[in-house]
Design goal:
The structure is a homodimer. Chain A has a single domain, classed as TIM Barrel (Alpha-Beta Barrel). Helices cover 39% and strands 13% of the residues of chain A. The first copy, chain A, has 13 helices and eight strands. An eight-stranded parallel barrel of chain A has the order 1-2-3-4-5-6-7-8, surrounded by six helices. Chain A is globular, with a radius of gyration of 20 Å. In chain A, 55% of the residues are buried. Chains A and B meet through helix 5, helix 9, helix 10, helix 11 and helix 13 of A and helix 5, helix 9, helix 10, helix 11 and helix 13 of B. Chains A, B: InterPro entries: Aldolase_TIM, HMGL, PYR_CT.
């Protein structure tokens, strides 16, 4: 009964800040490159170890990220942090590597409907397009991580069978990929499901490093993160100020806010290496610059550690 | 390893709707008695098994609930649902029982600072005032449940030692109380703590029925609920549309929204006996009547089960 009263979870995690990619791409109003770089530098100063700083999609698809090369080129002095960029195809990969990025992240949807909507290919077709990207990266000495969007539920198709995830992971393994981000793209995952799926996948793919990319669309992101922790997952994506809305539910919450995830992890006794106070300050600044947040509890209520002054006296009532 | 992939949680829970007390009391604008009763009836129609419908505090302390007698009196035909009222003292208990309530809930803070602020007594003094309330209730055949506010953290004092909770629970047991609501009044609990504290308390007080009253001030309420489920807790409070703000953080989220909790539980395969669709409709109506919500994911994004129409065709981009 020694562990009966203790949640068995890791003591240390690594968080990847994704706002410069997943957050900014959801903003319709142009964010100047200088501002983007300024935010990236402020984020780097919080102690976060890893950041997804842009995406090399076609500028017509996401005009907001048309400055991807410049963002990567001018971030090259940030040597204390692992920078990565999302790439949808070989051309994007070449642009990213030319600009100086050392790590690429691949895009892939678990379902055909989402893949068609997002990448204009079925999931199978999209898988076939990954190999040449990896070849280019390998040739040029750049690391590649995989991802699976809508891994825990698709807004068009609903439930995603775990066999579908296993099939994609097998394909990733054949291509030499050893880390994959599992994305709950539209916030459909629940803790029981996350715990069960991760348990199965970690048994079947014991050499794979999984990371969790959780959206808080239905308020379950933190509970899902805890379920993932209970399966030994230590890599999590999050987005400053919760930036990155849900295209299917305008106004709904986006990515779990970095400051909320870090606060919760610290409260739970988990090390992140991040300075929470500084991160909350950055979140405030980002909210001011962008004009809104994407759902952030810290920006509303502040951390638990901020105690209130004890009441001096009370009026008798009741 | 049979359970390695399965979160060990109960298959069925009982939710107590607390908006008519904890939600309404936070509203400064008068809600007419007729409207309150209308909402209570709509809530009862969702299938919720238990409801805290008002509080018999002094009308000067909470003018919003000055119609407590009338609310109780005119709810007496709702015989399919367990109704309870909060009472702060003997006079409140007598008023409540005279009006026809069959169950009382006691108020008690874990810390002196919160108790002084809330009840103008130290926690010890407040405990001494409970016995006469229970005597009155017992004499008149009315059941009494206990509660502990700020059980997982106090906005004035910070950490609350588990020994403090144990001491209060021992006092409750001496008074014949066998069910206690543990309240995270200002959203300071985290899942590791909830799991650990409940584990200890359930070992020490095996005959006590615990229920969880979780505020979502810092976004941890659902994760805390899951941690409580993992310790076998099956009683939860929640508030329609998340009503019931945090007096220490204006604008911050209040109680976990009933529709969010029910949605999450259903997604996790847990039975609540509640019709989620109907509950979301009630939440919409309540938001319209009250003029705002207190943080509700369902009102922003809708349930996971509401799928989107598959995209018919896509334009080539990228």
């Amino acid at each position: 009964m020694a562990n009966h009263n203790q949640l068995l979870i890791p003591k240390k995690v690594e968080i990847c800040e994704v706002a410069p990619r997943d957050g900014f791409q959801a903003e319709t109003e142009w964010i100047p490159t200088e501002t983007k770089l300024n935010i990236i530098r402020k984020l780097a100063s919080t102690g976060v170890k890893s950041m997804e700083i842009t995406s090399f999609v076609h500028p017509k698809a996401i005009p907001q990220l048309k400055d991807a090369e410049e963002v990567v080129r001018r971030s090259q002095d940030l040597t204390d942090i692992k920078l990565r960029a999302l790439v949808p195809n070989v051309k994007g990969a070449e642009r990213a590597i030319d600009a100086g990025i050392k790590k690429l992240k691949l895009m892939l949807s678990a379902t055909d409907s989402h893949s068609l909507s997002n990448a204009n290919s079925t999931s199978e077709e999209a898988q076939n397009k990954l190999e040449p990207i990896i070849e280019v990266a390998t040739k040029r000495g750049v690391k590649v991580g995989g991802s699976i969007s809508v891994a825990f539920g698709c807004p068009y198709e609903g439930e995603v069978p775990v066999s579908r995830l296993a099939s994609i992971l097998n394909r990733y393994i054949k291509m030499g990929i050893d880390e994959v981000s599992l994305a709950d793209t539209t916030g459909m995952a629940n803790p029981v499901q996350v715990h069960s799926i991760l348990g199965q996948l970690k048994e079947q793919f014991s050499m794979m490093t999984f990371s969790m990319h959780l959206h808080n669309t239905r308020g379950m992101a933190l509970a899902n993160a805890v379920a993932a922790l209970q399966q030994g997952v230590i890599h999590f994506d999050s987005s400053i100020a919760g930036l990155g809305g849900c295209p299917y539910a305008p106004g709904a919450s986006g990515n779990i806010a970095s400051e909320d995830l870090v606060h919760s992890f610290h409260e739970m006794g988990i090390e992140t290496g991040i300075d929470l106070g500084q991160m909350i300050e950055v979140a405030k600044g980002v909210k001011q610059i962008i004009g809104h947040d994407g759902g952030s509890y810290m920006l509303q209520a502040g951390p638990c550690s901020e105690l209130h002054v004890k009441p001096a006296s009370q009026e008798k009532l009741g």
